[in-house]
Amino acid sequence: MLGSLVSVVITTYNSSNFVVEALDSVAIQAWKELELIITDDCSVDDTQAVCRLWLKKNGHRFVRTDLLTVERNAGISANANRGLQVAKGEWIKFLAVDDSLKVNCIEDNMSYIARHPEIRVLFSKVEVYRDTFSGENLIKTIPDEAFHPESIMAPDRDAKSQYKMLLLCDRIHFTPSVFLHRETLLSIGGFDERFKRMEDYPLWLKLTRGGHRLHFMDKVTVNYRQHSGAVNNTTIDYLIKPNYFETEAFRKEYIYPNLPWDIRWNERFRWYGLQVFRCNWLNRNRKLNRLLMALFTSWMNPFKYYIYFKKRIVKNLKNKEFY
User: Fold this and answer.
1) Among 29, 43, 80, 213, which lies 20 to 30 A Cα-Cα from 9?
2) Right CATH for 6-226 from 3.90.550.10, 1.10.8.60, 2.60.120.20, 3.40.50.300
């Protein structure tokens, strides 16, 4: 483990404003055995030129560097897969270009894995900032209760239990921290390129369904930036994130076929009820809109009541972990 090569894969797209800060955070890592892979998804700004100049000045710091470019934009998942395919490290740290690593990020992950050699997927804490990584712009640290008994990261929860929890919703809110074993990632086929803007949720389902437990380290390793130019803009107080409305094809592929019939139809009823919030003025986190959401997805949902009474009446449920 000591001296193992780690691949840092930075995914870029029209990100010349942020890329140097991300690259600098990799260069100053305490862990020395690093390769740096930048994979650019056909930027039309000067991102590639900025990266080439930076590599010319700083490339000597790394065991190996690579700048991957394509002639046509293919989406986040395909961009991440390009980095995965050329990576040579035993472990991979993916970094979105508008985020940055804490100086001990790689070393902390590798030290923890050395003490827990069974780990193949490791998460940790993330500090969330507004626009810049300065103290006054720190919003919060996530997660707050990773080891709560009901958390997906609870110590006694196995991969099967995590998978069943993930079927109901994506409970991983600290995605930027993930640290992955390269061969494990390759063994499940990497990222699903059918879902161009959803690289993470399908991956967690593939990993846990394949028996790979998601582990957690109680340290902050990554800075996450909220800003208006992000692909998934989180600066607006949406009731429902707009990219949710693009997920039905994913749900048909990964979610619905793997749920008991009543849970499946409960989820589908909720999906149809939420369609009204595609309207921008309804999709704001206000009291009236929250009441409307409860009406359309919960109070009027017959499957919710069926599930409620089933839990109370049936004592030995075949699929009780879903309820």
Assistant:
1) 213
2) 3.90.550.10
